[in-house]
Write a structure and sequence with these properties.
Layout (H helix, E strand, L loop, with lengths): L1 E4 L6 E4 L9 H5 L25 H12 L11 E3 L3 E3 L49 E6 L5 H6 L7 E5 L2 H10 L4 E5 L6 H10 L8 E5 L4 H10 L5 E5 L4 H29 L9 H18 L3 E8 L2 H7 L2 H18 L5 E6 L2 E7 L3 H18 L14 E8 L7 H17 L5 E3 L7
Helix pairs in contact: 5-6, 9-10, 10-11
């Protein structure tokens, strides 16, 4: 078995065929290689192989011929029943349907993968998860060599395709909204700069899947794509591949993207409270420890606020629990409104909440506590089901840390809890600073 290297420091590919001719992107991707046949199909892409009379497909073929992507004579590929791609080894005689192999043709030639293998494991019952309806495909035709024509030939699918002609237009499109899939034909040879920028723009929690168009046998482009697109799903397709192959790879990436969105949503639900969308107790405690450690390491200030609603049990007693749930939702919204983007809030249990204020000293912390109290006072009483003029108040206790004056995160939390109890004892509807209790 030969090992083929693709440039300095780019890793190696194994050629199991023993030919040692060129790097194999199918080994790299661990999936069937694109055909790279440069042949578009003129058949109806509905699984029947019927010849198409759609002038749009014929026009797409002509555009690719004029662009030099397709030769004047085509060896036709068809999407046959069962979802497989078949490229006959012999031409079909006139009048013979495209799904009937011509004499001498190998019926197994050119089969890459079946459509029924594309179902995502994240779906229920083997069904692939759904993306937005219709899915939005961003076609980045930077090179201008027929990518938009290839996508125009995929047939009547419920996809909305938006085309950009240069990196600047792509940047604007991604800034305006999130597509479900990006198909990129890089302008620059190698396209590393475009791929790096695309990686920074395609989202954090569930990055948009990317299909990169490469030249046949260009293993280096695949390595560059793998190095740049480190988050989320991506795939490669050879330039001039038949539209069926584009369609199948796009469907596969759309399914992978839907699964990523589903997993991101499940992770969010695991970390955030269903009622308020604030962090759950364990996640809040983890973030608190992170901020405490960072403040201690870099000698930064921070504050911790513990919030508890006053006489909330009376709301549940006088009204049903549905009203109490709405009050909790209102309080969560009030806390989010009062805090800054860098602050962290959580629901610690029942009617108790917490807020982490990074880069905050005692004076700024006092201002933040006042904002929290006032926002809860103004919003929580407006919950549906409460009589007009109802008032919901809260007690708040807070403590600060300057990076060295408290030994542990647990001590910081204990001080804030003591300050909260003092606020309750003083009648509630107020904030108390721990160090004011000891004259510090």
């Amino acid at each position: 078995m030969d090992t083929v290297r693709s440039g300095p420091d780019l890793g190696s590919f194994e050629d199991r065929s023993g030919r040692g001719v060129e790097p194999r992107t199918d080994v790299f991707l661990e999936q069937p290689a694109p055909s790279g046949a440069g042949a578009l199909s003129s058949s109806v892409p509905d699984g029947t192989g019927r010849p198409s009379g759609d002038p749009g497909i014929r026009e797409a073929l002509e555009r690719q011929r004029r662009a030099g992507i397709l030769p004047g004579t085509l060896v036709q590929s068809t999407l046959v029943a069962g979802g497989a791609i078949r490229t006959p080894s012999a031409r079909h005689p006139p009048g013979v349907p495209a799904d009937v192999p011509a004499a001498g043709a190998d019926p197994g030639t050119g089969i890459y993968f079946r459509a029924d293998r594309l179902a995502s494991a994240a779906g229920t019952g083997g069904a692939a998860p759904r993306v937005s309806t219709p899915p939005l495909i961003l076609c980045c035709d930077h090179r201008g060599e027929g990518l938009s024509a290839s996508l125009a030939g995929v047939g009547p699918r419920e996809w909305a395709i938006e085309t950009t002609a240069d990196p600047r237009a792509t940047r604007r499109a991604l800034g305006a909204g999130r597509p479900d899939l990006i198909v990129l034909d890089p302008l620059a040879e190698g396209g590393s700069a475009e791929l790096d920028e695309l990686e920074s723009l395609r989202g954090e929690d569930a990055p948009v899947p990317v299909l990169v168009v490469v030249d046949s046998g260009d293993a280096r482009r695949g390595i560059l794509a793998a190095r740049a697109l480190v988050r989320g799903a991506f795939d490669l397709v050879h330039r001039g591949s038949p539209p069926e192959e584009f369609a199948l790879r796009m469907e596969r990436l759309l399914a992978a993207g839907a699964a990523q969105i589903e997993m991101a949503e499940l992770r969010h639900r695991a970390l955030h409270d269903d009622r308020t969308d604030l962090l759950r107790p364990a996640a809040f405690e983890h973030r608190l420890l992170e901020h405490f450690s960072a403040a201690e390491r870099h000698h930064l200030s921070m504050a911790l606020v513990i919030i508890d609603l006053d006489a909330f049990g009376r709301v549940n007693k006088d009204y049903d629990h549905t009203v109490g749930d709405r009050v909790i939702e209102r309080v969560g919204a009030a806390i989010r409104t009062a805090l800054r983007a860098e602050d962290v809030a959580g629901r610690l249990g029942g009617d108790e909440f917490g807020a982490i204020l990074p880069y905050t000293g005692r004076i700024d912390a006092a201002h933040a506590v006042r904002r929290l109290r006032d926002e809860i006072r103004s919003q929580a009483g407006l919950a549906e089901g409460l009589p007009p003029g109802s008032s919901v108040r809260a007690s708040l206790g807070f403590e600060t840390f300057d990076g060295s004056d408290i030994s542990t995160c647990a001590e910081l939390r204990a001080h804030a809890e003591i300050a909260l109890r003092a606020a309750k004892q003083r009648g509630g509807d107020r904030g108390v600073y721990f160090r004011s209790l000891r004259g510090a």
